[in-house]
Specification:
12-stranded antiparallel beta sheet, 12 strands
């Protein structure tokens, strides 16, 4: 199947329809399902368009309703803070007056001073030493075979996986093509991918695919992502209780720099 990166990048070019309101096109999917990572990335971009010259520091998203991918989504941004160092924004994503998503995003001035430390990147096989892997398990499911355009924009190599909780899943990934030289787009793609593959350790820990819904997703951005090369993503699902599974991950640049830290919850309804 051909890459959908071109189409994904097109949907990340939001249309301004007011001073703080934007519209974003969605991507084809089975049952017109809007992918959580995609709409969350759009919300982060909408917030960033009102916080010029500041880089994303974090985004915290709640997914409230599924929405309809055959129609655009409207993003309304509220300016909550404009400080000397930080800017804060609230983003509400709607269709037909119904709220699909609420996000809080923080932006800050770039600085180069201060104490720095991070967990080291694991010593793993290089991506060139690993075979190509399917983009995402949803592309192979009977209900979505070859229909998830929102999942075919990246390449990946699987380092290793395990089924027993916390079901570690370590992968390399990169966009399946050239990405514009725009830091906001790079950050949005990192947020996007971080939600897409983080579902997999939660499924593995439960023993396989099944009905589920992303409930919330948070990303803390530490350093700029270098999407011209492979990124390493160390994922696991350390906890599950009351039908809610927590998944967590750390994403590194090829040179070992920690790019972001991620947390996500998934709800598994009774079947």
């Amino acid at each position: 199947m051909s890459s959908s990166l071109h189409d994904v990048l097109a949907t990340l070019r939001l249309t301004r329809i007011g001073d703080s309101t934007f519209a974003g096109e969605q991507l084809p999917a089975p049952f017109n399902h809007i992918l959580g990572g995609h709409i969350s990335a759009q919300a982060l971009l909408a917030a960033g368009l009102t916080a010029a010259d500041r880089r994303a520091h974090s985004v915290h998203t709640y997914f409230l309703r599924p929405g309809d991918a055959s129609r655009p989504v409207e993003f309304e941004v509220v300016r909550l803070q404009e400080g000397r160092t930080f800017s804060a924004r609230r983003v509400t994503a709607c269709q037909d007056g119904e709220v699909l998503l609420e996000a809080m995003a923080s932006f800050k001035n770039a600085t180069t001073d201060g104490i720095e430390y991070q967990p080291p990147m694991p010593d793993v096989a290089a991506p060139e030493e690993l075979p190509a892997a399917p983009t995402h398990s949803a592309e192979d499911a009977d209900t979505g075979r070859g229909q998830w355009a929102s999942l075919r924009w990246f390449e990946r190599r699987v380092v290793d996986t395990a089924a027993a909780p916390p079901a570690p899943a370590r992968i390399w990934w990169r966009p399946d093509g050239d990405v514009p030289d725009d830091p906001a787009v790079h950050t949005a793609l990192v947020a996007y991918l971080s939600a897409v593959t983080l579902t997999e350790p939660a499924f593995a820990a439960r023993g396989g695919l099944g009905p589920s819904a992303q409930r919330d997703h948070s990303v803390w951005f530490h350093r700029p992502a270098q999407l011209s090369d492979w990124m390493f993503y160390d994922q696991s699902s350390p906890s599950a209780v009351d039908r809610i599974a927590l998944a967590s991950g750390r994403m590194y640049n090829r040179n070992g720099e920690l790019a972001c830290t991620v947390r996500q919850e998934m709800y598994f309804p009774p079947t």
